[in-house]
Design brief:
Elements (H helix, E strand, L loop, with lengths): L1 E3 L5 H15 L6 H6 L2 H13 L3 E7 L2 E10 L9 E8 L8 H15 L5 E6 L5 H5 L4 E10 L2 E10 L2 H11 L1
Parallel strand pairs: 4-5
Antiparallel strand pairs: 1-2, 2-3, 3-4, 5-7, 6-7
Length: 174
């Protein structure tokens, strides 16, 4: 069940954030970096984020967080886009069951209700999950090089200039 995150979900979100990075980026990002990821550091960040004006949702199984998504105001002001999908992370064993699409549906519905008209997402070029976003036919807005664990990676910015059109595509998949 996907619901709006509450402050008490911060630790579960942090645990999923670390574990899903370790699962998704194994063989892509340096293994020592992945092993060094700290739930405590992520917990501190998520406590702050949940106190801010972001839309954060959790997927729970037996009251345990097994996935999360976060949306909000676009951070770069580079592409004329006003909304951003900051993250969707789901533990491997819960992927490919529709949760990612449902996270998108709920987050975009709430952004539309607040008057957002467009949205983007940044994704590592080597991330196999980029195909999930590509299935919704985004525009390729740009790219940048980021460093993770001492190694450079290309990060792609996908965007949808019409959030209403994207919402209709998502609803057809739900």
């Amino acid at each position: 069940m996907i619901i709006k995150a509450k402050p008490e979900d911060a630790r579960g979100i942090a645990e999923v954030h670390v574990k899903s990075w370790q699962q998704a980026y194994k063989g892509i990002v340096d293994e020592d970096y992945l092993k060094s990821m700290s739930v405590e550091r992520r917990y501190t960040l998520w406590k702050k984020s949940l106190a801010q004006d972001h839309h954060v949702y959790v997927l729970k199984e037996n009251s345990t967080v097994v996935g999360f998504a976060a949306f909000g105001k676009e951070r770069t002001n580079s592409f004329g886009i006003d909304g951003e999908l900051y993250a969707i992370y789901i533990l491997e064993e819960y992927k490919r069951k529709g949760a990612g699409t449902e996270f998108l549906r709920q987050g975009i519905r709430d952004l539309i209700a607040e008057g957002f008209s467009s949205i983007n997402v940044w994704v590592l070029e080597d991330n196999p999950s980029k195909h999930f976003y590509e299935s919704f036919t985004p525009e390729h807005l740009g790219e940048e090089i980021i460093t993770i664990g001492g190694r450079d990676f290309k990060e792609l910015c996908y965007g949808w200039s019409d959030i209403h059109n994207l919402y209709q595509k998502i609803r057809k998949k739900c």
